[in-house]
């Protein structure tokens, strides 16, 4: 019996190491491919990659992706604030009142929202926002992104809040804190690392979403625009358009943009992770 | 202690964001102006009131690179910006009729029903043409060998009736390289998504194959008979077909010419109506467009145009090509937009056609006259 | 649950923002339903029984895309489960310090990669690799099983799509499992080791504590795979042919929309049929989510932490 358990233990370790390597290999490969293709472009283009305009098919120089960067930033900020607010409140609701039928409904709804094909979200937002506004806009793009990001943000936050052991909530009530105080002063601070990671992952998802912007944002690449009611562009949209074209210079711009996105994530991720400290239970 | 750190960080982030906002707003237009100044030497020569106008367009992916090129030149010349979205001809038309965009570019012209519905209020011009290239991947053939095919052979391949590359029919068309053709199954690649390129391809097969390819197999999205035999592959978009042909040996496919050129694919020579085998090139395409018959006014119905462009007469004419149309309203509420559109059409007719990029072909003189006629019609 | 007045106030204060989730879903479904009404009236259930896309003649049947969506999602969730569970276990149990930080950060980062990049990478690297090293060997050795009976010509198939989507949801599932696992209180781990369990056995026990979160992540992953557009459009092979073989090209609903929506306006009912396909997919997913959520809630009430 004893040796069989040992064998099982060793076997287990071997299997999970194998499977983890299998899991992480595609990810590493993808990062390598993006870096090789993208960093070279970066270096070639220099700082004008951040401030210039995208090239036309016939041009020789790489230009830049400034309109897309600004568009992505703008839409991400609008969409992230709405998504996080809605998701956090919904997560608090379902954690505090788990058996209520509204909570069950919200839980199921969040999952169902995720199954609408992303391109369909774009079609719906087109019908609901773009047509009445008679034009594409960063606002329509943000609405579409919010709809897509909500399920993930909600699921993540609800899981994070749920994993705070009940003992802390009981302790808060035992010193006569109101429910709101218990949530804001006890629950959320304990879960703050998880919430920070949740915000990061939602932000990454929003910044990288492509299909939602196809019929909503407008692909406006000729000028940098800061207004939410005017057409805008986004980095994933640019990548989508350019990488499916036959022109090599556009392929290069697309890979450069991908590398830029990846570097941006790395910077923001590490910054936030360093600042927010984990609470050990 | 913790809280004050958090507040401090938030304040710093806010300051950084706001200052970045102002810096970018100032710095980026500078960079952009520098860019446009370096790309052309002609000064901005139009009335100041038109600068800053944005024209919105949407439609076929086919015309997007050309419009990107034209838009950039037009913008540096006149300060009017053109924003184009390649969402597809159908979606482009839909957005146009919903007045979300100012003009649409569509590979197929307005259908007869649609044209009847909007008769008198819409203008369409077939302002650009592009050929469809038949590409193939046969490793045994040397780089400089040119495979010759005709519509009957291609039709039979896509119907599943010709199975191997060394079929008698193909050998008879290619007597010089008949010995090199391998005994391998042909993999037929087609467009899985709805596409004007498919429509051009199938219309050509229908017109030129002597009833091997029937009328019901013509369209933007059809069920391909070869699929049932397991030798057909659908690719999404021109890039999908291109990739499939590159990655699959012994395959044949049809793509827009620009994709064939840019990806170094082997292009087949196709037999035209005069019996000669031609490759797509500037001369063979201009020859095909020489006798283009189009209605005399942009207000008329263009739905029969494909007939007069595909498989036309002419010794050197390339048989598979098609138009893409620009669709505009006759009246616009905004007078500045109407002015800007008129200016754009005029510029395209006079100068734009000097900057046609690889894969496209400028239309003949009668189309340019149509453009001029169109801009006289636009009013506000 | 008996709520005091303060509880009720708390509940009501949370309600407006939370019910906006409900409002969004209702609005979306209403739009979809309205737009698909035409085609449902005309074609009715014929859409579910056949598999044709012929807009020129006006014949539509959605069976292949619907089945394709479900099967690719099942494959994707299976792949994600098999690959992310070991990954999370390794990260939590066996890695320490900076290596652990780096690995988990890489995994979280990949969650934000634009799906178009996954799609391009999958179509250029993953699918040829799968075709040579997985699909062809499987086909050659297991030819008699109908699942593997067709020869993969290009590799683009339901199988390839399922695996590609699975790989793209690994980051999200891994991160959730990581969080859930890490927040199991130390007391349980100490208890396991206290009675002399091996690493393997204690991991098994702790995973069962994290099970609700894992199931929630998987259900979300399933929903996400149903809705995944760019990857599916590029790797699924785009064929309306319904075959029992996993290696044959197929279709998913999102790939269908991505391919056909561009020109759908040019035909009278094409757009409406596409909206109807979305409706069917959403209905399947809603049913599954409700069922899954009720299971999770039942489990959660059993586990008192």
Automatic annotation (TrEMBL), chain A:
Keywords assigned by UniProt, alphabetized: Membrane, Transmembrane, Transmembrane helix, Transport
Any GO BP: transmembrane transport
Superkingdom of the source species: Archaea
Domain (ABC transmembrane type-1) ranges: 69-276
Topology within the bilayer: Multi-pass membrane protein
Chain coiled-coil ranges: none
Transmembrane intervals: 12-45, 65-93, 113-133, 139-161, 182-204, 253-276
Location within or outside the cell: Cell membrane; Membrane
SUPFAM superfamilies assigned: MetI-like
Primary localization: membrane
GO cellular component assignments: plasma membrane
Family: Belongs to the binding-protein-dependent transport system permease family.
Protein name in the entry: ABC transporter permease subunit
Species: Ignisphaera aggregans
Lineage: Archaea, Thermoproteota, Thermoprotei, Desulfurococcales, Desulfurococcaceae
Automatic annotation (TrEMBL), chain C:
Location in or out of the cell: Cell membrane
Ranges where the ABC transmembrane type-1 domain occurs: 66-292
Gene Ontology CC: plasma membrane
Any one GO biological process: phosphate ion transport
Membrane-crossing segments per the record: 59-90, 156-178, 209-226, 246-266, 273-297
Keyword Transmembrane set for record: yes
Name used for this protein in its record: ABC transporter permease subunit
Bilayer topology: Multi-pass membrane protein
Entry's family note: Belongs to the binding-protein-dependent transport system permease family. CysTW subfamily.
PANTHER family listed in its UniProt record: PHOSPHATE TRANSPORT SYSTEM PERMEASE PROTEIN PST, PHOSPHATE TRANSPORT SYSTEM PERMEASE PROTEIN PSTC
Organism domain of life: Archaea
Keyword tags: Cell membrane, Membrane, Phosphate transport, Transmembrane, Transmembrane helix, Transport
């Amino acid at each position: 019996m004893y040796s069989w358990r040992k064998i099982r233990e060793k076997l287990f370790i071997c299997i999970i190491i194998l499977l983890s390597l299998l899991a992480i290999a595609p990810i590493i490969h993808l990062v390598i491919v993006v870096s090789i293709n993208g960093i070279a472009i970066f270096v070639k283009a220099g700082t004008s990659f951040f401030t210039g305009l995208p090239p036309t098919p016939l041009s020789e120089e790489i230009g830049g992706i400034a309109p897309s960067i600004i568009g992505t930033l703008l839409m991400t900020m609008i969409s992230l604030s709405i998504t996080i607010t809605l998701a956090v409140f919904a997560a608090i609701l379902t954690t505090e009142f788990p058996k209520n039928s509204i909570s069950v409904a919200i839980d199921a709804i969040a999952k169902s929202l995720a199954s609408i094909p992303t391109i369909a979200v774009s079609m719906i937002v087109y019908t609901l926002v773009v047509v009445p506004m008679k034009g594409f806009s960063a606002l329509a793009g943000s609405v579409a992104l919010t709809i897509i990001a909500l399920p993930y943000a909600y699921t993540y936050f609800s899981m994070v809040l749920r994993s705070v052991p009940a003992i802390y909530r009981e302790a808060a009530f035992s010193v006569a804190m109101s429910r709101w105080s218990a949530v804001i002063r006890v629950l959320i601070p304990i879960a703050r690392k998880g919430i920070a990671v949740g915000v990061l992952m939602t932000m990454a998802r929003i910044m990288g979403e492509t299909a939602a912007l196809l019929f909503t944002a407008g692909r406006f690449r000729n000028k940098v625009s800061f207004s939410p009611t005017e057409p805008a562009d986004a980095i994933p949209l640019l990548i989508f358009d350019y990488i499916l074209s036959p022109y090599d210079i556009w392929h290069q711009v697309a890979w450069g943009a991908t590398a830029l996105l990846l570097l941006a994530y790395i910077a923001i991720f590490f910054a936030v992770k360093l600042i927010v400290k984990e609470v050990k239970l | 202690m913790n809280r004050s750190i958090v507040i401090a960080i938030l304040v710093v982030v806010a300051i950084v964001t706001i200052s970045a906002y102002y810096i970018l707003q100032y710095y980026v237009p500078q960079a952009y102006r520098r860019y446009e100044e370096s790309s052309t030497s002609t000064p901005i020569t139009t009335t100041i009131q038109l600068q800053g106008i944005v024209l919105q367009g949407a439609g076929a992916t086919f015309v997007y690179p050309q419009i990107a090129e034209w838009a950039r030149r037009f913008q540096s010349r006149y300060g009017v910006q053109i924003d184009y979205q390649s969402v597809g001809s159908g979606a482009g038309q839909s957005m146009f009729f919903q007045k979300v965009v100012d003009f649409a570019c569509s590979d197929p012209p307005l259908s007869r029903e649609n044209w009847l519905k909007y008769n008198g209020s819409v203008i369409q011009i077939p302002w650009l043409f592009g050929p469809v290239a038949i590409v193939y991947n046969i490793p045994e053939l040397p780089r400089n060998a040119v495979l010759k095919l005709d519509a009957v052979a291609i039709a039979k391949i896509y119907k599943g009736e010709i199975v191997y590359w060394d079929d008698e029919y193909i050998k008879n068309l290619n007597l010089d390289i008949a010995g090199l053709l391998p005994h391998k199954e042909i993999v037929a690649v087609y467009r899985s998504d709805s596409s004007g390129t498919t429509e051009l391809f199938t219309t050509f097969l229908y017109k030129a194959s002597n009833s091997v390819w029937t009328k019901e197999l013509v369209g933007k999205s059809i069920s391909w008979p070869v699929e049932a035999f397991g030798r057909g592959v659908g690719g999404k978009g021109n890039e999908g077909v291109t990739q499939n042909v590159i990655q699959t040996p012994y395959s044949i496919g049809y793509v827009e010419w620009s994709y064939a050129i840019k990806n170094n694919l082997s292009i087949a020579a196709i037999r035209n109506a005069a019996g000669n085998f031609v490759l797509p090139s500037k001369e063979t395409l201009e020859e095909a467009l020489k006798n283009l018959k189009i209605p005399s006014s942009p207000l008329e119905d263009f739905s029969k145009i494909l007939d007069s462009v595909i498989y036309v007469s002419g010794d050197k004419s390339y048989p598979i090509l098609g138009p893409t149309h620009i669709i505009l309203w006759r009246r616009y509420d905004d007078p500045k937009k109407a002015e800007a559109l008129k200016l754009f059409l005029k510029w395209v007719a006079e100068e734009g056609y000097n900057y046609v990029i690889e894969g496209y072909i400028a239309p003949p003189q009668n189309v340019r006259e149509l453009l001029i006629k169109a801009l006289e019609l636009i009013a506000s | 649950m008996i709520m005091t007045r303060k509880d009720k106030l708390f509940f009501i204060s949370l309600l407006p923002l939370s019910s906006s989730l409900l409002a969004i879903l209702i609005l979306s479904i209403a739009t979809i339903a309205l737009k698909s009404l035409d085609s449902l009236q005309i074609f009715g259930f014929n859409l579910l029984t056949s598999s044709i896309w012929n807009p020129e003649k006006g014949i539509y049947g959605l069976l292949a895309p619907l089945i394709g969506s479900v099967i690719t999602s099942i494959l994707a969730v299976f792949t994600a489960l098999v690959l992310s569970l070991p990954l999370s276990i390794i990260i939590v149990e066996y890695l320490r310090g900076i290596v652990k930080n780096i690995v988990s950060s890489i995994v979280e980062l990949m969650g934000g990669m634009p799906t178009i990049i996954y799609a391009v990478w999958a179509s250029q690297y993953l699918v040829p690799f799968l075709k040579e090293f997985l699909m062809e060997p499987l086909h050659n050795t297991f030819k008699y099983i109908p699942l593997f009976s067709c020869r993969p010509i290009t590799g683009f198939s339901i199988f390839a799509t399922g695996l590609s989507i699975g790989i793209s949801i690994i980051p999200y599932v891994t991160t959730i499992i990581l969080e859930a696992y890490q927040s199991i209180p130390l007391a349980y781990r100490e208890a396991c080791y206290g009675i002399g369990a091996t690493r393997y056995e204690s991991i098994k026990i702790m995973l069962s504590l994290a099970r609700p979160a894992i199931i929630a992540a998987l259900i979300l992953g399933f929903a996400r795979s149903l809705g995944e557009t760019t990857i599916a459009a590029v790797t699924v092979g785009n064929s309306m042919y319904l075959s029992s073989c996993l290696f044959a090209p197929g279709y998913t609903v999102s790939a269908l929309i991505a391919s056909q929506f561009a020109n759908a306006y040019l035909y009278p009912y094409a757009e409406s049929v596409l909206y109807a396909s979305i409706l069917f997919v959403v209905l399947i997913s809603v049913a599954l989510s409700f069922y899954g959520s009720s299971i999770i809630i039942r489990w959660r009430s059993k586990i008192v932490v």
